[in-house]
């Protein structure tokens, strides 16, 4: 539904999954189509509201016809139209086909992808950034983005060929945090230059790390946490960029931790000084 720039959105009711608009939205399941259209799909009223509140561009709002009398949905639809987004109203079965869920939420949205410009990243002295090398699992990436939000990380950098942060699985796993955490992408060469200019510590997790992850003085920032991928860990060229290689001690039979868990441990340790224990929490 093309229209002049700045014009309000339009409302359209669609009854069939064979409709060309619905077909285009369903194609967002594919990474290539997300890249070609610079768009992705998010589900749930809270996520769509979070996206709008954080300045993300909503292109299309989709809601179930059964929710047309829901006051909250009506207000969101009016807000979407005022922002220039189109609103399409579909039967629940069509919404289920769009989201590939048997019991879909009553609202979904097509949004414009957004990445931070690597050239404009300027870490402050108290910042903690997370860099992920070739992360493969959408659930891991989504969980890390959610953890970065909760733990107060300044952003996440994706190094090399990674899973798409805007895949439906990743967006679901972030629980809305994708709209609050800056994401940047870099190939290995560009990241090497970025790391070479980093003004603080670069702490990497490594099986051969000689320092317990709780030992570094993380208050001497900014901190860049560098995490290897799920299968191979941190490769030698990236390990060489680190000022400190740390390890997370283990006592059981497992030979490694899940990437999202390891990242959470390191982030919260690096940010420990930002979460003082109040007197009330000690009782």
From TrEMBL:
Does this UniProt record's set of keywords contain Methyltransferase?
yes
Under InterPro entries, the record lists: Alpha/beta_knot_MTases (IPR029028), MRM3-like_sub_bind (IPR053888), Ribosomal_eL30-like_sf (IPR029064), rRNA_Methyltransferase (IPR051259), SpoU_MeTrfase (IPR001537), SpoU_subst-bd (IPR013123), tRNA_m1G_MTases_N (IPR029026)
Give the RNA 2-O ribose methyltransferase substrate binding domain ranges: 41-117
User: Among its keywords, does the record have Chaperone?
Assistant: no
Which GO molecular function annotations are given, in alphabetical order? RNA binding; RNA methyltransferase activity
CDD domains for this protein: SpoU-like_rRNA-MTase
GO terms, biological process: methylation; RNA processing
Q: Which UniProt keywords apply?
A: Methyltransferase, Transferase
Provide the family line: Belongs to the class IV-like SAM-binding methyltransferase superfamily. RNA methyltransferase TrmH family.
- Its recorded name reads RNA methyltransferase
Q: Which organism is it from?
A: Roseitalea porphyridii
